[in-house]
Amino acid sequence: MLLKFKIFRYDPKKDEKPYYQAYEIQANPADRILDCLNRIRWEQDPTLSFRMSCGHGVCGSDGMRINGTSALACQKLVKDFKENEEILIEPLQVFRVVRDLVVDQVPFFEKYNSVKPYLITNSPPPDKERLQSIEEHKIFEDAIRCILCACCTSSCPINQAKETETYIGPAALVRAFRYLFDSRDEGAVERISLLDNKDGAWGCQTRWWCTKVCPKEIPVTKQIAQIKKRIIESKKGKQ
């Protein structure tokens, strides 16, 4: 079937401003949008730039906007689009464009690292591993699926607002949830202090876009709500 693409193009080294370029390609219904982009680059325009790696929804590197919605190009199938339909491909919002569909994710990972995404322990390490029950693990099991594709952060209306650029965003909060509710972690006090502010958990206004676009179907909004509840409970415990 024939697919038409309208793709965002911008090379800050030579372009005065962004523009859109049209491409057409014959594709099979089982092909992915990523396959189409690769064929455009290989067969029509080798200057087209985008990120990709595993191609199987594991690495999260090919996040982009497809018809206005943040998604992974490797998870979108040709059969889900109509023949002759123009498919709009754009870079993720929020981030500075490096070139075409490639964005600068350094600020994204800086915010991610700000929540200390690792186990904090104060007690001496055991002779073997730190044990955890299946039930304890299930509490944060969904959050482990996060592949840091940044689709949630790109879609978040709060992150998109200029006056809230310091908000750490849903991806960082999901990772904070993962450790805050890990029975082996002993840094709850420190972690809550990092999240209890307008740039942390309270920056979320419960718009649900992060949950809607998550390619791993993580209940992002609910997990952020649980962080807020944990913060409130910790304050009650001090009274």
From TrEMBL:
Keyword Iron: yes
InterPro entries: 2Fe-2S_ferredoxin-like_sf, 4Fe4S_Fe-S-bd, 4Fe4S_Fe_S_CS, Beta-grasp_dom_sf, Helical_ferredxn, SDH/FRD_Iron-Sulfur, Succ_DH/fum_Rdtase_Fe-S, Succ_DH/fum_Rdtase_N
Keywords: 2Fe-2S, 3Fe-4S, 4Fe-4S, Iron, Iron-sulfur, Metal-binding, Oxidoreductase, Tricarboxylic acid cycle
Requisite cofactors: [2Fe-2S] cluster; [3Fe-4S] cluster; [4Fe-4S] cluster
Domain 4Fe-4S ferredoxin-type intervals: 137-166
GO terms for MF: 2 iron, 2 sulfur cluster binding; 3 iron, 4 sulfur cluster binding; 4 iron, 4 sulfur cluster binding; electron transfer activity; metal ion binding; succinate dehydrogenase (quinone) activity
Coiled-coil region(s): none
Membrane-spanning ranges: none
GO BP terms: respiratory electron transport chain; tricarboxylic acid cycle
Documented EC number(s): 1.3.5.1
Stated family: Belongs to the succinate dehydrogenase/fumarate reductase iron-sulfur protein family.
Protein name, UniProt field: succinate dehydrogenase
Lineage, highest ranks first: Archaea, Methanobacteriati, Methanobacteriota, Stenosarchaea group, Methanomicrobia
